Amino acid sequence: MPQTSGKKLGVTTLEDISALILQSHDLNETLNNIVALVARRTAADVCSIYLLEENETTLRLSATRGLSPESVGQVTMELGEGLTGLVVEEGRMVATEEAQDHPRYRYFQETGEEQFHSFLGIPLMDRKKTIGVLVIQTREPRSFTAAETSTLSAIAFQVASIVINARLLDFIHQKEQEAQTFALALEKSRQALQPVTETTPSGQEGPLRGTVAYPGLASGAAHVMVDSGGFADFLEEDQVDPEEELERIEQALEKTRIQTIYLEKRVAEKLSPDDASIFHTHLMILEDRAFLQRIQQQIEERHCAAYALKKVVDHYIGAFERMDDPYLRERAADMKDIGRRLAANLSGREDQVLHLKHPGILIAKEVLPSDMAALDHEQILGIVTESGEKNSHAVIMAKALGIPALVGVKGVVKRIAPQEPVILDANSGCLYASPPTAIIEEYDRLEEEARNESHRLEEFARLPAVTKDGTPVVLRANIGLVSDMAVAQRNGAEGVGLYRTEFPYMIRGDFPTREEQYRLYARVVEGFDGQPVTIRTLDIGGDKGLPYFSPPPEENPFMGWRSVRVSLDNRDIFRTQIEAILMAACHGPVKMLFPMISGLEEIRACHEVIAEARQTLSAEGIKFVEKIPVGVMIEVPAAVKMAGQLAKEVDFFALGTNDLIQYMLAADRNNPLVNKYYDPLHPAVLLVLQEVAEVAAQQQKGLCLCGEMATDPAHILMLLGMGIREFSMAAPFIPRIKAFLRDLSLNTAEAAAKKALSMTDSAQIRHYLQQVLNNNLGGA
């Protein structure tokens, strides 16, 4: 049996499957198209998809290329039966060159599969739960390469996401029968028809308050975006011609699809392809057969197209908004966005997006992704919304642009008039409307001070980081998005000390392919032009979940299945990322960093996956760097005590002080009940930092501190005195720390650290360090 190259199977197959999603009209058609494509690209005799039914014990053949077509929908098996059932039971890949010799083999006469020997089964996963199996079979015995199984695993994730999306839509369809759903949709329709009255300046005392989505300070005139949903008055339905209305809605759909492609392109150019990926989801909804059939059904009942559209869109919005999962609730915003643009195209007028003629503060009930794509970002100084979603796609895009944002400000659209002067303090979560003179003067003073300080620090961004006596210090940047690169470079970062790769994963609808990751990492590496970039592998779990791969419920997720533990339990995903990192290293100096390592077994397992990744790339003839520096995050107490042994396995350490302090002191800094116990200057914390610094020095290993400790002068004083010379931080802090270092001598830092380490009370330590700063730096 001829084998296909992993390269041929990989990127083009994944891209073609993405295209099939848009071309197919329902789940069955999509699955049939996928099995045909995969069978052809893998040169396999059979490709089949089995899905687990609602009872979670029965697998049913849902699509196949190679088995008898009549067996689709007819062949079922229980979890205890067959090799396919074994894949589900164990939640892992199962492969054998002679399936009939396996003790779990089961023969189904109706499939005609007795002629096939090799079997490869890959689980379809939804948040650590198996929902089906992708099966490959061949007539001749065959073993699949690591490259092929890696790509097939990525395909399996795509298939799983398609199934999940289809089932989600089916769930919404079923809810239509519930009277409560209809009542809610009707009530929403009535509310949408109420006329919007023009507001006047509030003149209220005190600020409006909300939740900070992105910090910052801004002032200017209010750009108030009144959202009517874009729907025309649909009560006048006399003389409805269904054929004419169907033609109108089809034209609106086609125009909206074209607009969606344009919006995706615009956002990809302004920000990045990852930021634009939300519009893929919009295209899928616009192509969803059930969505289109609902609209058609309403029109055939002699309702006008606008009425049909509003009723169906409201129905979907209501269903999404009632879901428990925060990610799924946020999909209501996507449905609103699609509905508004469809309605505008249906009525023949432009979508009601503000045309901003001057800089100001955007005020809205909700800012949808297409708003952020269409608005002139140069004219938006800040964003305030009534919606409280901090992680909506629009807010993510605002963060990428560095625009201060406040969410969850109740009633702000009616309380702020267009062009009313406002002050947005997104540091403290306040919005001042028509502020009195005293408030204006105070914020003018704060803005002036901020500007002056910014100008003062600009010169330090261009200077090297050195102490008063000439000791060099390395200051790198923590980044998470491509848009962070410009901020880091502007502030004089010497490369990247911590690239958090989970953020690109979080804003997507599924796992990025190796090629997608490679292009992203290469772009970052090239952007720093020879300066090192430390790429941390995927760190999910705890407070970071993926919408398509959430960890199972845990009583204490911060001490559960997270970070490298998740990666090692999902080696295909892990290996794919490592392959992309090794490929990106061809474009500049790259270091690879593994999070939350607690012992030798984990780091040795990581080395095994690196070796597998090298073998895969070598077999495919893909260019990569054979050897790059490998490091571990020291962020759990066990890693501190194992530092001496870990140093023999790695090239460098990264001190993750945020987590390390929390674990050391059993204090969640985000929990108001115990955050007073979170103390970076606790004697125990300082002793373990000193211990790690000594091990790194003795074994000549690199050591970089990545955490908020690096942004505080008293902490830097202590850390520098311990012997730490490399720090990674949020980029805007770098010029300030450079300025501070130029007034600090190394002798002062070493003497201060030595004395502070002998103290047993954190208050005493803090008071002493502040005295040193006051005496030597004039109260820095």
Automatic annotation (TrEMBL):
Any GO MF annotation of the entry: metal ion binding
Domain of life: Bacteria
SUPFAM superfamilies reported in the protein's UniProt record: Enzyme I of the PEP:sugar phosphotransferase system HPr-binding (sub)domain, GAF domain-like, Phosphoenolpyruvate/pyruvate domain, Phosphohistidine domain
Reaction(s) catalysed by this chain's protein: L-histidyl-[protein] + phosphoenolpyruvate = N(pros)-phospho-L-histidyl-[protein] + pyruvate
Keyword terms: Cytoplasm, Kinase, Magnesium, Metal-binding, Phosphotransferase system, Pyruvate, Sugar transport, Transferase, Transport
Domain GAF: 26-173
Name of this chain's protein: phosphoenolpyruvate--protein phosphotransferase
Organismal lineage: Bacteria, Pseudomonadati, Thermodesulfobacteriota, Desulfuromonadia, Desulfuromonadales
